[in-house]
Each structure stands twice: as structure tokens, then as C-alpha cells.
UniProtKB/TrEMBL annotation:
<feature type="domain" description="GIY-YIG">
    <location>
        <begin position="179"/>
        <end position="266"/>
    </location>
</feature>
<dbReference type="InterPro" id="IPR035901">
    <property type="entry name" value="GIY-YIG_endonuc_sf"/>
</dbReference>
<dbReference type="InterPro" id="IPR000305">
    <property type="entry name" value="GIY-YIG_endonuc"/>
</dbReference>
<protein>
    <recommendedName>
        <fullName>GIY-YIG domain-containing protein</fullName>
    </recommendedName>
</protein>
Length: 269
């Protein structure tokens, strides 16, 4: 059975019946004088371009759905996934265009710029999601490897942490995090409260952070019940995995005291 876009969407729990699929062509200028996009357009330019749509319901749905699957042309009958956007409604309109508040969702993030589907009618630039769900997948390109920035430069949101532990392009990051024990810091960016944790010799930083990626709290009482979407993860100090546990425990205690995370943070002890 051929792999289709619908199969991909099921894995992300996106309902094609509640989605709109758009395929942008590269056109410098449209007949109505509206500026188009090109192969070197920035993400911000593509987002702005997508947010402007026709006033005429014949050209664009009067009540477009919440989810927009946005592709760009990749040849005559090919469409490459750009982003999955969430439509927060029309914000204003002028004499010719409606302007929408569109926001990136992070859905299918690991397939952005990699997933290519067959788009059977290039002249048709938008279709209902249920129609696009039947379009076959032509290619899922290899992801470009992201170079590991070094432990001192790690500043990961919860969404990025999940991507690091899942996506092929972060393979080098996973290898680095698997090679060390250490002391790490979780900061709740909403209020600045912090949590100091450790991964000792029996558990690498990658293993410890995998628990946070899975449930947000990793079993820590101080983090339970908090929304991890605003958490930021960083590394304070790394150790060889053969380092005695007592040394790692002392380092953890030092950072808890230095950052005062027991009295004014998220550490329970």
C-alpha cells in the first residue's frame, strides 16, 4: 500500500477533514499586483504571504478551518511541506485582501522541508484536507545534521528537547548527551524559578532528559502539575560517567545552594 499524506497526518493526530492544504508556487508578482514568493523567500515572508488571502469566497473559503497544511512547489507535480499553521482567525481586511493571524504549531516539525507529496493539479493551489490526504508521498528527504553546539551553549525549550531526542538531524546531540553524567538546570521561564538536577554514573543526561521529554516532570515532585512548554533546559557541569557518585552529589548540592533553588526554586530538598 502506498504511503499517503493521510497516513502521515494520522501519526500527528491531525484530522484531514478539519484542515486546508495549500501549495504555493513561485511567482514574483501576481496579475493583481500582489507580491509573490520565490525559492529564496524567508520563512517570515512565506508566513506573511500565506496570511493574506482573497476577499472572494470563490478564491478562498469564507470560513477556513483551524489547521493549514502549507506546501511550496518542488516541481510541476510535487509539493514540499513548509509548515503546519494554526489559524486564529481573520484580524482585518482591506479593499482586496483578508488578513489572518497564523501561527506555527510545531506539528510535523521533523518533516518540514523534507516531506514531498504528489500534487496532481498544479493549477489548483488549495484543496480540502480530506482531498490532500489521498495524495501519495513521493519522498522523505534525509534531514541535514544539526552540529552539536557544546554543553555550555545548550538552551533547549521543551519542544526542542523532544525534537532532539526524536529527530534524525539531532543524532550528534544525542550521542553527546549519552556520553556524560552531570548537573543540569531547568528554568520555568514564566516566573524564573529553577530546578537543579543530576544524572549520575548509572544514568546519562540523555536518559534523564528523556523522562522530562516524555512527561514534563521526570518524577520530580516540584515539577509535577506545571506546564513544561515554558521550561528551558541547560547543563551546568558535565562529568565522566566513571566519576564517583559522591562527587556528583557534592556538585549538585553546591549548585542548589548557589542558586538557592530549595528555598526560592523548584527543588524540594
Amino acid at each position: 500500500m502506498a504511503l499517503t499524506l493521510g497516513t502521515i497526518l494520522q501519526g500527528e493526530t491531525i484530522d484531514p477533514g478539519e484542515a486546508l492544504a495549500i501549495r504555493h508556487s513561485f511567482v514574483a508578482m501576481h496579475e493583481d499586483g500582489e507580491a509573490g514568493i520565490h525559492a529564496d523567500s524567508t520563512d517570515a515572508e512565506i508566513l506573511a504571504y500565506t496570511s493574506r488571502q482573497s476577499l472572494t469566497s470563490r478564491h478562498f473559503p469564507a470560513d477556513p478551518p483551524r489547521t493549514w497544511l502549507v506546501f511550496v512547489t518542488d516541481g510541476s507535480y510535487r509539493a514540499r511541506l513548509w509548515r503546519v499553521l494554526e489559524n486564529h482567525g481573520e484580524v482585518h481586511r482591506d479593499d482586496t485582501l483578508r488578513h489572518f493571524d497564523l501561527r506555527e504549531t510545531g506539528a510535523l516539525a521533523d518533516l518540514q522541508d523534507r516531506l514531498v507529496i504528489h500534487w496532481p493539479a498544479p493549477i489548483t493551489w488549495r484543496v480540502h484536507g480530506a482531498t490532500a490526504a489521498d495524495y501519495p508521498v513521493l519522498e522523505i528527504a534525509d534531514a541535514a545534521r544539526e552540529p552539536f553546539p557544546g554543553f555550555d551553549r545548550l538552551r533547549l525549550s521543551h519542544a526542542t528537547l523532544q525534537a532532539v531526542l526524536r529527530e534524525h538531524r539531532y543524532e550528534h546531540w544525542r550521542s553527546a548527551l549519552s556520553s556524560v553524567a552531570g548537573i543540569y538546570l531547568i528554568t520555568d521561564t514564566r516566573d524564573g524559578r529553577q530546578y537543579v538536577g543530576k544524572a549520575d554514573g548509572a544514568e546519562t543526561i540523555r536518559q534523564r532528559w528523556s523522562a522530562y521529554a516524555a512527561d514534563g516532570h521526570g518524577g520530580n515532585v516540584g515539577l509535577r502539575g506545571l506546564d513544561p512548554s515554558t521550561f528551558r533546559y541547560s547543563v551546568l557541569r558535565v562529568f565522566d560517567r566513571a566519576t564517583p557518585q559522591a562527587v556528583i552529589n557534592d556538585a549538585e548540592s553546591h549548585f542548589k545552594q548557589a542558586l538557592d533553588t530549595t528555598r526560592h526554586g523548584l527543588n524540594g530538598n
